[in-house]
Structures are given as C-alpha cells and as structure tokens.
Amino acid sequence: MSTTLERKRNIDTPDETRPFKAHGRMDVVTLGDFTLGRGVFEAGWRWSEDVKPIAGTESCQTRHTGLCLSGQMTIRYDDGTELDIGPGDVLVIEPGHDAWVVGDEPCVMFDTGVAAYAKPH
What's the number of domains the chain is made of? Predict the structure, then answer.
C-alpha cells in the first residue's frame, strides 16, 4: 500500500490485484484516502458467478463511480431495471445489482468505488 506522501502511482504497478473467481481481476491503487481500481472483466464475466462467492451477498452492494474504457457491460438492478454501458460512458451504479460482460471483448473500466470490492468478507 502506498504512503500518504505519494502523489502518484501507475495503475500498471498496483498496490493489490484482486482476482475474480474466473474471468478477470481488479487492479487497485490507493493514495492516502483515494482508491482507484481498474477492472478487467473478461468475456463470460458475471458478478453473480465471479464475485458473489467472494462478496457473500445476494447482489453487489458496492456503489461504483467510474469510466468505461472499452467493451460492453449490462447492469441489472435488484428491481429489474437495466443499464447498458460502453466505451466513454461515465457511470454511477448504485448498490443492489448484478452485471455481466456483453460480447467477446473484455470490458475495462476505472472505478473509484472499489476500496472493499471483491475482497473476501
């Protein structure tokens, strides 16, 4: 983990890499009280299959704020509404959702809501 004196880090040398059960990982950099993750969600990734066993909750209870760099993903909230995201989309995803990659291209996104994401509880 970085020290509070650090002002920058490169996401390619993260403080931590959190592998999903399958289909990707979350690279995490922390600078003081700021945490940024780069999620690499490979084709076939689905929260309810790849992260639910780690999180231990029925749906994702993390609030995500970030930017989709590439690929496509669908988010389905617990109430059944859906949100499709793709490259260039800036997003806020509230807790209480499932999500999955659409198509064969990995979905890559930066996310500031990952301090506890994909960490065993």
Answer: 1
